[in-house]
Description:
By secondary structure, the protein is an alpha+beta fold. Helix content is 54%, strand content 25%. It contains 6 helices and 5 strands; from the N terminus they run αααββαββααβ. The chain has a 5-stranded mixed sheet with strand order 1-2-3-4-5. The chain is globular and about 80 Å long. The chain starts with a helix and ends with a strand.
Amino acid sequence: MKKLLKWGVIAIGGFFVLCLIVGLTTGDKKGASTNNALQKGMEQAKQTLESSETPVQETSQAKQVANTSGTVAQQIEAKVRASISGSNKFKDVQVTDFTKLGEGYNVFVTINVDDNLTTGFISKGIWQDMSNIYTALYKVPMNIDTVIIFADMNTVDKYGKTNNETVMKTRLTKAEAQKVNWNYAPKSTLDLQILPNVWETVLDMFK
């Protein structure tokens, strides 16, 4: 676009120069009028060139930022879902919030637990899948500062009413995650012994 406008300026200038030369041959008064038209045309073309550059650059930059943010969010969502894709302990999992804080991201994940299991299986199952999610998001660095996981399930109160509420909530920061040997074997020990002692347990209704 910039090159096209420059050639337009050159063409307009050449046209008015030609008119000026012709005007000079027919009289001073007509030549002076042509010269004024030349200057006015050159100024208008210059203003058009300058006003067309900045908006194009700003639009391009805005699209680049939006695309980058969307890509990171999609990668995190995909990793979370893939980490427990083979689990039969959950009805659903989703990234419920994704916010940028400084150079990193805060990720909030909610998993809906299958309540057709005994308390012991539910508790260990939550640990297992929370560990899988933390491993998926921290084993390969993705500029994540904090991951918070909520485990929700249907509970029945003493009046027989069913409510969907959070039964476990844990948090793992980047600072702690960097200390973990994510390749520890066997993985079951990592999932059920090491990581539960590393992450912060904010809520555990099974204790």
